[in-house]
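Bench notes, afternoon.
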Amino acid sequence: MLQNNKLEEDSNQNPRVTWEGCSVLLDINDGDRLVFARLTAASSLKIGNKNFLLQPLIGRPFGSLFQVENGKEGPFLSPLSITEGDNVEEKGDCQINDECKDNRGLVDNNTAQSLTGEDIDEMRRQGATGDEIVQALIANSATFEKKTSFSQEKYRLKKQKKYAPKVLLRRPFTRSICETYFKKYPARIGFLRVDSLSLLLSMANVSAHSDVLLVDMVGGILTGAVAERLGGTGFVCNTYLGVTPYPVDIVRMFNFSSETCRRIVQCSLTDLCSTQNETSVQIGQAGDAIGTDNFVQEEKSPLCSESMDGTALSSEHGMLDLMPETSTSPVTKACKTPKAGEKASQEAINLWKENGFSSLVIATPDADAWTIVKELLPLLSFSAPFAIYHQYVQPLATCMHNLQLGKMAVGLQISEPWLREYQVLPSRTHPQMQMSSFGGYILSGTRICSDDQPQLK
């Protein structure tokens, strides 16, 4: 009865609107700072030296824009319509014309601004809004009118970020989560870039109603991406070597429903290979020559550790700030979210042993790819695709060579994704000045039947 109530509640939940206990991605000042937070009545966000309650964000649609305003009880987050937020950009775009201005005659000697800090504090005490302070700074600048339209817009945005910061409420999904982690802490997700992640899922043919076998040692971003693409169908089986599952804390940020979380299971390699061969059984035991201790140590490494770096959205700390210096305040205990990664049932394990998995996806940046592939490949059904990610090419080259020698797969290829971002602005469209030059490597192929391989029973 309780499970039926949970399913009914999930079905009635509007995924386009925030609710109490959901995870959100807060984009402050157009990407200057990114914060993962869990919305509760008591959760707060620190901007500058002020704390702002996140309660106004509950019940708002994703994509809503908020601006810091000064009220009688202190600063607060006020909803801002998109049209109001775009007025500044539209106003700046209208000023872009063929002017005969340049900045050669401007000297930065800190004498152009006549408005002092005391004057700004007095305006705040009188209840002036951030936009009013920005307009006052522009009016009291002796060099603003002499600047080009581009310089004026840059000056306006700089002051707006300081005196009237804006917060964009974003929905956390695969792309936004991956881009956020890759921008700030790429080592936590094994330097897995968003285009590499999408190529990894496509090469493994992850689609609806698939049973996908995973080895996720990148914090759970791969598990969440596969579950999101399955859309509540099929199963995601996250396997591991040894006795301790690899952490998948990032899955909590996806706001999956109870039905989707129920389809994310974990199963040790020992249980999956118990009827295959005895060598696979010995792999899962501690102290084996394969180096199981190294994998257990990986679970304690800063890559995915919750206790060392706080990457998880724990119920005690409802906020994760992806900045070099953490500037968020602890919040009260948030609402419970559905837990993903329960142990797979024996019935499902027996079915996978009989029919095999439809896809295999591996992301083990700090482990030997061939050691894992040779144990997991027999678990795939024949003609099933697989894709392996690694941040270096040599482990994948060794794995590819061994697969060719053993005649275990066909269509083997190593891909290196390449991504270039463009700035798209009026009269200023060009590639970004700085871009990522490295996104890892992906080995893909298709499993085939061979006389030397153990057969699925």
